[in-house]
Write a structure and sequence with these properties.
- The chain has 726 residues and is an alpha+beta fold.
- It has eleven helices and 40 strands.
- The protein has four domains: 14-25 and 59-428, Glycosidases (TIM Barrel), CATH 3.20.20.80; 434-521, Immunoglobulin-like; 537-617, Sandwich (Immunoglobulin-like), CATH 2.60.40; 626-724, Sandwich (Immunoglobulin-like).
- The strands form nine sheets. The protein has a nine-stranded mixed β-sheet, covered by helices on one side.
């Protein structure tokens, strides 16, 4: 975000551009006047199916994050740490958006705005009091300029390394996550220019400050910072797929930002840092935000994550590089009434859960306090009665004049509805929980579920319909709920107040218009999971595959099989689901380290504890002697793919196995000209008698039909007989 004005920002969404009984937890209204949810026109039936045996992702400790800014004079308020803890915040990013690229941490000053309200030590104290981890954005844009004024003179990389030393060596603040620069692509490379970057020449589209220049400088930053503390994770600025400037090129950027940066920094990226604001204000892209549009936008997330993983696999050398969404909120600039209303509170958990269910390591709301904006979208087409906007979760008590009248926010640290949305989210997901599959028959009723370590199951239902209630019938696989009336926490009303009461049953709940309902279910009987499988051992390691085997598990209720997971930090991805105690994992990248573990599962869907892990490093590629052309005919929810496999080497291929990983949730249904199979996200095609021989320069065409939901990103890479194709 741009700072310290906090009100202006360039467009980010290509899609938008293309379309031109307890008391309430918090009940302070965001503005004068009451707004009620429209009277329900009808009660509509819906069915929700929860499959507790189908794991999506493990909730990381850093999953729920937010941003803190140096210009936030309320950040040091005594109430803030407790409020962050109550909302489940596990990570706080500092010094705040575009301020990062003009900030001198040593003097706590900004190049253009002088001394700032909060220094680094005060931020670190707030972290310790709240129990959250820290993330620091070091100054890329003007680091060299500030460093040159030091005695002796330093580079920006050395200035950043000094910060790491001060934080982690001198003061033991234990800041694990560091990123280099904020929205550096907003430095004029693609025309739009809001981010400070002293590397750039003046004028439009300068040729000396594009992604190649950024990546080259980042190498020096990473080297200097990790020389001080090799345990830190260093993130680099990337663009969210489908959002500006994804895919853009310029004189100084002949290849898109992500491709250029990933290729130059392959093997050095600690985490991928992206921002996502799904809407633009009407001042940037008429007609501006809509409530229905915002609540539908989370459906974009699986495609963005899948595409980003594919890009990381293709260009950065590993599709398992962690992803962190370090800024998100409803609108890209000039926030209006939607940001302080119920709709944003309903959007927030859907936003976070969309990313977390797809394996993202952290999602960070912009931000704790921000300030009143009276020039955003405040029209009657949007829900609510406020005449202003504010990105903050908490009010800062600021006032402004609009149409000759003075408007004031509630007193400092009063929660806005988005804070209640985050609090509800934190009651739903706890670090270490397993997000499991849940689906709804109604497009405006969203369903989510998590399985807790104690065997209980939580279900969250979000009604995006402003007019209709839903009578929801729920069914469960892999879990048998206990009888009785569950305790339900509801978020509803203009202030998104949270109330708790006993209501409904495990199989039936009613969800009012524009509301969310969270309930916890205990298992109906004691569950004895399968015994823990043995630690897997690896064999047959190639540049693109590995064979794993382990000591089998036992189960008193019947063993259904195993889930082989790839482990990357706190994220687990199922890569194979065999019925016996061995599996071949294919579609791997050459010369890349992978860590695997195994779960056993019984016929009721219960999982064992995780086995020990095994780490392997694939062999180097053998020359990339193949090429695959991939094209699809997509009709929405299903598609036909045609693949042209070519032998680009100098020796014949006699019998072949082609493999690839889907970055989305595609499921193979049928295929031709090969024996097709799918295990987890890995698809394998084996030659037939008539097309197994490929002379040098020869090609063969194969194809398949598949289904999907959400998005349909293409595979990032292919492997032939275990060797990656060029």
């Amino acid at each position: 975000m741009r700072a310290p004005s906090r009100t202006l920002r360039l467009p980010v969404s290509l899609a938008t551009l293309a379309l031109l009984a307890a008391a309430p937890l918090w009940s302070s209204a965001p503005s004068a006047g009451a707004t009620t949810v429209p009277t329900a026109a009808a009660t509509t039936s819906a069915t929700v199916s929860v499959n507790a045996a189908q794991s999506l992702a493990t909730v990381p400790v850093t999953g729920i994050g937010t941003n803190a800014s140096v210009y936030d004079s309320k950040l040091t308020d005594a109430a803030v740490p407790g409020l962050l803890k109550q909302a489940g915040v596990g990570l706080v990013r500092f010094p705040g958006g575009s301020s990062s690229d003009s900030y001198n941490w040593k003097t706590n000053s900004d190049l253009t705005n002088g001394t700032q309200a909060v220094d680094f030590d005060q931020y670190a104290t707030m972290l310790q009091q709240s129990g959250a981890q820290g993330m620091v954005t070091v100054n890329y844009g003007s680091g060299d300029t500030i460093g040159a004024s030091e005695t002796p003179a330093e580079s920006g990389a050395q200035l950043a390394a000094d910060w790491v030393r001060y934080a982690n060596i001198t003061h033991n603040y234990h800041i694990k996550y560091w990123e280099i620069g904020n929205e550096v692509y907003g430095n004029g490379t693609y025309g739009a220019d809001w981010e400070t970057d002293k590397h750039c020449a003046a004028g439009t589209n300068p040729s000396n400050c594009g992604p190649a220049v950024y990546a080259q400088n980042v190498k020096a930053y990473i080297a200097a910072m990790k020389a001080v503390d090799p345990t830190i994770q260093v993130g680099v600025v990337l663009t969210a797929p489908g959002n500006w400037p994804d895919g853009a090129t310029s004189a100084g950027s002949p290849q898109p930002w992500n491709q250029t940066v990933m290729t130059a920094l392959a093997g050095q990226i600690g985490f991928a840092d992206v921002h996502w604001y799904p809407q633009n204000p009407s001042s940037v892209t008429p007609p501006g935000p809509t409530d229905a549009g915002l609540l539908a936008d989370a459906a974009q997330i699986p495609t963005m994550v899948g595409t980003l993983h594919a890009q990381l696999g293709q260009y950065a050398g590993s599709s398992s590089v962690p992803i962190m969404v370090t800024e998100t909120n409803s609108v890209s600039s000039n926030p209006g009434k939607q940001t302080v209303g119920l709709v944003n509170a309903l959007f927030l958990p859907q936003d976070y859960l969309g990313w977390l269910a797809n394996g993202v390591s952290s999602v960070d709301w912009w931000q704790i306090h921000n300030g009143m904006v009276t020039t955003g979208d405040n029209g009657s087409s949007l829900y609510g009665s406020a005449n202003y906007g504010d990105y903050g979760m908490l009010a800062d008590g600021s006032c402004a004049t609009a149409a000759g009248a003075q408007l004031c926010e509630p007193s400092a640290d009063t929660p806005f509805p988005a804070y209640n949305g985050m609090t509800l989210l934190s009651r739903f997901v706890h670090p270490g929980d397993t997000l499991v599959s849940a689906g709804s028959s109604q497009s405006l009723l969203q369903a989510y579920s998590v399985k807790a370590g104690d065997g209980s199951l939580r279900v969250l239902l979000v009604n995006d319909d402003p007019a209709n209630s839903y009578q929801v019938n729920l069914s469960y696989a892999g879990f048998s709920p206990a009888s009785g009336t569950p305790t339900v926490t509801t978020m509803a009303g203009a202030t998104a107040a949270l109330t708790t009461a006993s209501a409904g049953t495990a199989g039936s709940q009613t969800v009012a218009p524009y509301s969310a309902a969270l309930f916890t279910l205990q298992p109906g009987s004691a569950v004895t999971p399968p015994t823990t499988p043995g630690t897997p051992t690896a064999s047959g390691l190639t540049s693109g595959s590995v064979n794993l085997s382990w000591s089998p598990s036992t189960s008193s209720t019947g063993l259904a099989g195993y889930d082989v997971v790839q482990v990357s930090g706190s994220t687990e991805t199922v890569v194979a689901s065999p019925t016996s105690a061995s599996a071949t994992v294919s579609g791997l990248q050459p010369n890349t380290a992978y860590t695997f573990a195994v779960y056993a599962k019984d016929t009721s869907g219960n999982r064992s504890a995780r086995s020990g892990t095994v780490t392997v490093t694939t062999a180097a590629a053998t020359g990339g002697s193949c090429k695959v052309g991939y094209s699809v005919n997509d009709w929405g929810g299903g598609f036909t793919a045609t693949l042209v496999l070519s032998n680009t080497g100098s020796t014949p291929v006699n019998g072949w196995t082609l493999s690839f990983n889907w970055p989305g949730n595609q499921q193979l249904t049928s295929g031709w000209n090969a024996n097709w199979s799918q295990s987890g996200s890995t698809v394998t095609a084996t030659s037939l008698s008539y097309n197994g021989a490929l002379a040098p320069g020869a090609s063969t065409t194969v194809g398949f039909n598949a289904s999907y939901s959400g998005g349909n990103p293409a595979p990032g890479s292919f492997a032939l007989n275990g060797a990656a194709c060029g």
